[in-house]
Protein backbone atom coordinates (compact mmCIF):
# COMPACT_ATOMS: atom_id res chain seq x y z
CA UNK A 1 0.00 0.00 0.00
CA UNK A 2 2.81 2.38 0.86
CA UNK A 3 4.44 1.75 -2.50
CA UNK A 4 1.17 2.46 -4.29
CA UNK A 5 0.83 5.72 -2.36
CA UNK A 6 4.31 6.76 -3.46
CA UNK A 7 6.06 6.31 -0.10
CA UNK A 8 7.68 2.85 -0.27
CA UNK A 9 9.05 1.41 2.95
CA UNK A 10 11.50 -1.34 3.84
CA UNK A 11 10.29 -4.50 5.53
CA UNK A 12 11.72 -3.29 8.83
CA UNK A 13 10.15 0.13 8.31
CA UNK A 14 6.74 -1.46 7.81
CA UNK A 15 7.16 -3.58 10.93
CA UNK A 16 8.04 -0.45 12.91
CA UNK A 17 4.99 1.36 11.51
CA UNK A 18 2.70 -1.49 12.54
CA UNK A 19 4.31 -1.72 15.98
CA UNK A 20 3.71 2.00 16.55
CA UNK A 21 -0.09 1.66 16.42
CA UNK A 22 -0.62 -2.09 17.10
CA UNK A 23 -2.42 -1.82 20.43
CA UNK A 24 -3.26 -5.53 20.78
CA UNK A 25 0.25 -6.54 19.64
CA UNK A 26 -0.97 -9.14 17.15
CA UNK A 27 1.32 -7.91 14.38
CA UNK A 28 -1.62 -6.72 12.29
CA UNK A 29 -3.58 -3.52 12.00
CA UNK A 30 -7.27 -3.60 12.67
CA UNK A 31 -9.46 -0.86 11.26
CA UNK A 32 -9.48 0.82 14.67
CA UNK A 33 -5.68 0.75 14.81
CA UNK A 34 -5.52 2.10 11.25
CA UNK A 35 -7.67 5.05 12.30
CA UNK A 36 -5.31 5.55 15.23
CA UNK A 37 -2.67 6.63 12.70
CA UNK A 38 -4.79 9.67 11.83
CA UNK A 39 -5.63 10.41 15.44
CA UNK A 40 -1.92 10.40 16.33
CA UNK A 41 -1.09 12.52 13.27
CA UNK A 42 -3.68 15.11 14.25
CA UNK A 43 -2.38 15.16 17.82
CA UNK A 44 1.20 15.58 16.56
CA UNK A 45 2.32 12.30 18.11
CA UNK A 46 4.04 10.96 14.96
CA UNK A 47 7.63 11.72 14.00
CA UNK A 48 7.67 13.78 10.81
CA UNK A 49 10.02 11.37 9.05
CA UNK A 50 8.14 8.21 10.07
CA UNK A 51 6.26 6.09 7.57
CA UNK A 52 3.02 6.65 9.45
CA UNK A 53 3.38 10.41 9.16
CA UNK A 54 3.92 9.99 5.42
CA UNK A 55 0.86 7.75 5.21
CA UNK A 56 -1.28 10.25 7.08
CA UNK A 57 -0.03 13.14 4.91
CA UNK A 58 -0.63 11.23 1.64
CA UNK A 59 -4.18 10.31 2.53
CA UNK A 60 -5.23 13.41 4.43
CA UNK A 61 -7.95 15.81 3.30
CA UNK A 62 -8.66 19.16 4.90
CA UNK A 63 -12.46 19.20 4.98
CA UNK A 64 -12.42 22.87 5.96
CA UNK A 65 -10.75 23.69 2.63
CA UNK A 66 -12.45 21.26 0.23
CA UNK A 67 -15.73 20.63 2.01
CA UNK A 68 -17.42 17.31 2.64
CA UNK A 69 -18.09 16.70 -1.07
CA UNK A 70 -14.43 17.37 -1.88
CA UNK A 71 -13.35 14.87 0.76
CA UNK A 72 -15.85 12.36 -0.59
CA UNK A 73 -14.52 12.80 -4.12
CA UNK A 74 -10.92 12.48 -2.89
CA UNK A 75 -11.55 9.16 -1.16
CA UNK A 76 -13.70 7.83 -4.00
CA UNK A 77 -10.87 8.63 -6.43
CA UNK A 78 -8.36 6.86 -4.18
CA UNK A 79 -10.62 3.80 -3.94
CA UNK A 80 -11.11 3.78 -7.71
CA UNK A 81 -7.36 4.01 -8.30
CA UNK A 82 -6.63 1.17 -5.89
CA UNK A 83 -9.37 -1.03 -7.34
CA UNK A 84 -8.00 -0.52 -10.86
CA UNK A 85 -4.60 -1.72 -9.69
CA UNK A 86 -6.27 -4.58 -7.86
CA UNK A 87 -8.09 -5.63 -11.06
CA UNK A 88 -4.78 -5.62 -12.92
CA UNK A 89 -3.21 -7.77 -10.21
CA UNK A 90 -6.20 -10.14 -10.36
CA UNK A 91 -5.74 -10.52 -14.12
CA UNK A 92 -2.06 -11.33 -13.66
CA UNK A 93 -2.88 -13.83 -10.90
CA UNK A 94 -5.50 -15.51 -13.12
CA UNK A 95 -3.00 -15.79 -15.97
CA UNK A 96 -0.43 -17.32 -13.62
CA UNK A 97 -2.97 -19.81 -12.27
CA UNK A 98 -4.00 -20.76 -15.82
CA UNK A 99 -0.35 -21.26 -16.81
CA UNK A 100 0.21 -23.39 -13.70
CA UNK A 101 -2.90 -25.47 -14.45
CA UNK A 102 -1.72 -26.07 -18.02
CA UNK A 103 1.73 -27.12 -16.80
CA UNK A 104 0.14 -29.56 -14.34
CA UNK A 105 -2.04 -31.03 -17.11
CA UNK A 106 1.02 -31.35 -19.33
CA UNK A 107 2.91 -33.17 -16.56
CA UNK A 108 -0.03 -35.55 -16.03
CA UNK A 109 -0.26 -36.31 -19.77
CA UNK A 110 3.50 -36.91 -19.89
CA UNK A 111 3.28 -39.28 -16.91
CA UNK A 112 0.37 -41.16 -18.54
CA UNK A 113 2.35 -41.44 -21.78
CA UNK A 114 5.39 -42.82 -19.93
CA UNK A 115 3.20 -45.37 -18.15
CA UNK A 116 1.70 -46.55 -21.45
CA UNK A 117 5.13 -46.58 -23.14
CA UNK A 118 6.51 -48.75 -20.33
CA UNK A 119 4.16 -51.54 -21.42
CA UNK A 120 6.06 -51.83 -24.71
CA UNK A 121 9.53 -52.16 -23.15
Question: Which helices and strands appear, and what pairs or packs with what?
Answer:
Blueprint: H1 11-21, H2 31-43, H3 51-58, H4 63-118
Give a verbal description of the structure:
One of its GO terms (molecular function) is calcium ion binding. Residues 78-112 form a coiled coil. By secondary structure, the protein is mainly alpha-helical. It folds into two domains: 1-60, Recoverin, domain 1 (Orthogonal Bundle), CATH 1.10.238; 61-120. Helix content is 73%, strand content 0%. The chain has four helices and no strands. The longest helix has 56 residues, at 63-118. The protein is elongated. It starts with 10 loop residues before the first helix and ends with a helix.
Identify the notable features of this structure and list them briefly:
121 residues, mainly alpha, Recoverin, domain 1
Give a short summary of the structure.
The chain is mainly α. The protein has helices at residues 11-21, 31-43, 51-58, 63-118. The protein contains four helices and no strands.
Using the alpha-carbon principal axes, give the shape: elongated
Which fold name fills CATH's third level, the topology of the largest domain?
Answer: Recoverin, domain 1
How is the biggest beta sheet arranged?
A: none
Any idea what the CATH architecture of the largest domain is? Orthogonal Bundle
Mean pLDDT comes to 77
* Total strands: 0
Note the beta-strand portion.
Answer: under 5%
By CATH, the superfamily of the largest domain comes out as EF-hand
Number of domains: 2
Cα-based radius of gyration, to the nearest Å = 24 Å
N to C succession of SSEs: HHHH
The first-level CATH class name of the largest domain: Mainly Alpha
Distance between the termini: 58 Å
Helix content: over 70%
* Helix/strand class: mainly alpha
Report the total helices: 4
Instruction: Extract low-pLDDT stretches.
Output: none
